[in-house]
Every structure is written in C-alpha cells, then in structure tokens.
Amino acid sequence: MRSRLLLGLYAVLALGAGCEAMAAGSVPVSVPAPAAAAGYDDLVFSDEFSALDLSPDGGGTHRWYNGLWYRAPVERGNFTLQDGYVRATTDVLPLTVTSMAFLTTWPRKQGRTPRLFHYGYFEARLRFSPGRFNWPAFWLLSSARTKTGGEGGKGEWCEIDIFEGGRPHIFWGTVHHWKGDSSKTNDNAFMPLPQGADMTQWNTVGALWQPGRISWYFNGALMGSAPSPKVCDEQALFLIVGAQKRAYGPLPTSVDVDWVHVYR
Question: How far is CA 155 from the centre of its chain?
Fold first, then answer.
C-alpha cells in the first residue's frame, strides 16, 4: 500500500499538484468500488473537515482557497465548521448577480503551486435544501481557464461538473469542451435522481474520470457515462466545491460538505 501511495502522489506532483494523501486527523476510508475497478486505489487528496484549512489571503500552502480567481473572495464567515462538516453559504447580493461561496484548490496569489488532478475518482458527501435558487456544485476546471480572464475569455479548456443541484430531482453531471464563450457538452447531462432520493440528507456524488471517458455516480450507483473530449485528456484540472445562488435569489443559499476524496 505504501508503494502505491507514493506512486499516486508522484503522479499528481508531476503535474504540479502538491497533493496530500490524507488530511491530518482524518479517518481511514475504504476505496469505493468504481475507483477500485479502475485501478484508482490511492487516496491522493482528502478532507474530512475536522478542521478547515483555508488560506487567509489566497497564498501559502493550504488545502483550500477562497473562491474563483477572477472574483473577490467572500467573507471567511461564509464557511463555517459545524459538527464534522463545513457549511458554505452565499451572500445576499443585488438582483441579476450570481452569488458564490466556493472552496477551491487553486491559490489566488500568483507564484503559488495549485493542486491539480489528471484522471481519478472524485467524490463528496453533500446535503442541501433544494430550491429554485439553490445551485450547489462540485466540479473540476482546467488550469488553462485561469489564464483567460473572467467570465468570458479566449482559448480552449475542459470543465467536468461532477454534480450540480440546479434542477429538482435531477443529477446534473456535465463535461464541457470550452472554446471561448461557447461549449460542447454531453447530451445526457440531466440524469433523473433515483426515486425517493432526498438531497436534504447526506448523499455521495462522484465522477470517474478515465482516458476518453467520464462516468457519474450517486451513492455508488452509476448514473451515466459520456466520452471525454480530447482537451480534457490533455489538461490538468483543479477542484471546486461549494454553494452558489442563481440570479434574483432573495436569500442566501448553502450546502453542507461532509468530506471530499480523490483517488488516483
């Protein structure tokens, strides 16, 4: 196991990722079946949220950084530790503005080493209150995207949405091949949740990213698969998890994150 762990770490570090095998004080976890079947049995990134290792200023070596690179960070109080999990809560902002409270593995300050990933099994245990404006998200975005400016930009990059909760009773899993402001996506991005699924309770969402293919999982059950665009196979991606609110939402929205695991 020790040799496999080192190999997994070296694979991520070779991409400039600087990943950690396990969070200090975290508990051992078993390898999920989809990860084991793909040969991804090394836990290369983990946070059980017994503490919140969030950079105070967008720099330094931390597990998480506050928000996306082109937006001002939210207040530190938007991320609160509860009882072994973190709650991310959006702000109340003027109409037409989408509010976000994201934890990312991409540092805000230049010259810092981000944690990047290339293939693997990514999973998180989440709960939230579904609603018209609540839009929790767990996703991966190409480091190439950070070089193209804010909302728009030029270039070509990959985005893998492991899970978005923007539609009632829908598991929203999408792979984007972006070119500038437009993208091609998988036709089966909207997958019906299993009957009786209750997102106000804890559920595990995940995605298996392999060469040429991405598969989405809900509580260990396969939801669907799609081809991975070539650009995704060529780029390294960073991890994002947290809350966002659709425009016109009158109140804050939130999502609880019990843990995040990445296997390689």
Answer: 22
